[in-house]
Amino acid sequence: MPLLNRGMRRAALTALFVAFVAALPATAQTPVFNLPLKAKLTDCHTGLQAADRFAVFVGQMPALQGTRRMWMRFDLYERNVGGTWRHLTVPKFGTWQKSLPGKPGFIYEKRVDQLQAPADYRVQVRFRWYDKSGKLQRAARRTTHTCHEPDPRPDLAIGKVTASEAGMGRLRYAIRVRNDGRSDAGAFDTVLSVDGTAQSPVTVAGLPAGGATNVIVVGQRCELGSQIQIAVDTAGAIDEAREANNAVSRPCPMP
Asked: What's this model's pTM, rounded to 2 decimal places?
């Protein structure tokens, strides 16, 4: 789904600064008042749905002595998990915004909506100052902090395993299963294998985000010093943030 954005120009700084500006020495490249040159991430909103995820970036620049107009350009960059930063072509980004003539400072804000996840976003802001004849006085660039959009999917994980006697040479295994993800998981199976033999699967009806449950399996007794294997969501029914942690080996838990 394409990224959407909204841009707005904040009110130009007013003539309240005129007397202060006039009092400054006429030194080249000196800002006319104390507005730091910055590119900022002012809001980074996460959510389970793309419609809930957005970021707000702000650029600000002071006029220099003799500056007639100031220009500012926002370029959006995205980094996927394990990837490198890449430039995104987004409507209203990548174009020059221009201040009104003769203002002592320029502040501009842009918002980008429907961010993808998992991914990181940042903006590089470019600044230019022009005098009354249209000559470039100075150019600069700054990069904002990163907006991190975490993976919204569930993430099943296997925790501690304990065992107690179940009679008839069998053990009652209690397997701690967690959902470390950010959304709920639907129904999934848990399978315990002892000495390479899979025991009867146990179905978990579901697990909320951040939740945990003990899955009980009554099955073959493992031998001291051996390893047992546990796997969750063996049918691949759950679309997870991580799949590599769905199968683990654990030491045989003696009662």
From this structure: 0.80
